[in-house]
Structures are given as structure tokens and as C-alpha cells.
Amino acid sequence: MIFEDRSGVCKDKAGMLITMLRAAGFNSYPAMTMAGSRIDDIPADQFNHCVTVIKRHNGKYQLLDPTWVPFLRELWSSAEQQQQYLMGVPEGADLATTPLSPPENHYLRITGKSELSKEGSLTGTITLSAEGQTDASVRAGFFRNSNKTQWQQNLEKEMLKVSPLAEVTRIEFGDPINYMSGPIKITIDYRIPDYAEISGDRVVFTPVIASIFRSLQPHLAFETSVKDRKYPFRDRCSRLVELSEMITLPEGFSIYSKPETKSKPGEVCSFEGGYMLNGNQLALNEKATFGKRIYDAKDWSQFRETVNAQNSFMEHPVILQVKK
Known about the structure:
The chain is α+β, with helices and mostly antiparallel strands. It has two domains: 2-97, Roll (C8orf32 fold); 103-322, Jelly Rolls. Helices cover 18% and strands 35% of the residues. It is built from five helices and 19 strands. The longest helix has 16 residues, at 300-315. The N and C termini lie far apart (80 Å).
């Protein structure tokens, strides 16, 4: 019935996958979990989601989730890391917890090359690439959840968040529905008239890379005014964010001020970022690492410092001054 109707809830999909795997000669069984919440080690009905496990040649079990992975480049959704589950296997099993997924499996890389005119206009190119859960966020946010006629408009809206004067001159991306072709990649050419603010002999601006695609970085929405936490907190997934931009500055200007270089090392979260000037080429590089989905209260200090460090490069502009 499930196969013929092509419909069902999680337990139906898990059961269908178990049937197909067994038909292919694999040892496969169901498992129960609590999506979005923890399971305590007490005998109670604490489950809301059914998944599948398969026994590998080494005797270890691998989790598969046929409900969530059809729109992912993963066989198990890493949005379910650090989540308790119970396997229904012949030999019996205790309550277990899904492992952490390394941040580099869910990277967001945004690179840019731009040129600022002395009148304040900015022209440039942005390239975005992503993998894992971040890849899934890009595909869902800009493509899968929208009509095809809106895909380009969705990306143009991201540029308009940077500046309402932004003009997109070219957008290029592959087939966002082809998950097997590799990580998602998007290229945008743009022009922003009067992007920089000119005041006397000074030019004030913030590199586009420092502030674009914030919707793909949910950590930036955390309220960090709270210095201490008593309880655990959670993000959507572990992730690695790498931002870089090379900006050609107008001739006859020098750096009056810029955000200071920041280094926030940590075992759970970390940040490195800063500017480097070579002639009239100003390079911005940022790297933020978030190592968990569910954090302990003691992790808040590292998480908070990392978020604040990244936000500082958006909040504090670069100021140029006419050479004297």
C-alpha cells in the first residue's frame, strides 16, 4: 500500500526502506528517536520519529533517515546530531546518542572580488558554495521552496538587503534539484551606485561579504547581550563559515580606520578575521567555526565571542581618507 500510494509518515517510509534493504540482502531494522528534543533514560513514550538502521560488514550499525534525506546530500540528517535514539535490533540495544558532525561537513564559503570608485560606487562578483546542512539551507531557501520563476528574484533580494540600490547584472547556478552533481555553487555579478558614504575627504563602507547571506548563518541571530547561561542551548547544526573578499580601493586614498584583527581560539567555537592591505588591494578574511548543534551552558562564552567577533566586521566599517 505504501509503495503503491507513494505516501506515508516517517514509520511508513522507514518500513519501506527496511523492506527494500532486506530484499537487497542487507540486515536492516527500525529505530526510534525524538526529533528536536532529548530522550531521557527512563521507560516512557518519548519518541516522535522513526528511522532505519543497517548493519555493516564490521558489525556496526549505520543510521539512515528516509524522511529527511531526500533533499540533502547526506544519508543521515546532521540536524539530528546529538540526538538520542533506540534501535530495534534482535540482540537488543540501549539508548544511544548520534555523534557530532564535523563543522567542515557543513561549510559556507562566500568569496568576493570588488572595486570601489572614488565616487562611492561598488562593482563586483560574489561566489557562494556550501555543503551538508548549509547546502540544504541554500537549496531550500532560494530554490526548492519557491517556484522556478522566483529563483533569480530570491537571490536578488539578498543583494537588496545589502543595499536597496543594488543592481544584479548576472546570476549563475547549476541545477539546484540535482543533489548528486556536487555542492551548491552560486555566482552573482552586481553593481551598487553610491554604496559608500562620502563625507568630506573620507569614504566609509562595509565590504559586501561581511553582511550578505546572513539568513544562511543562524548563529548570527543569537542574542549575545546575555553574558552567562545556566542551561544548554542549541543551533541548527555545526558549521564552518569562511568569508573572503578582495577590494580594489580608489587611487589617492589611504586607510583611515578599519576593524581590528580578531582571534578567538576555542575547542568548541573559534574565530579568526582581519584586513590586510597590499598597495590599493584590501583583503578581508574571516573564519568562524561552530562545533556542535546542542551546546552546554559552559560553551556559551566561546559561542558568544565567536558570534560577536563575526558581527563586528559588519557593524564597524572601513574608513578611507584622501592622501595628503
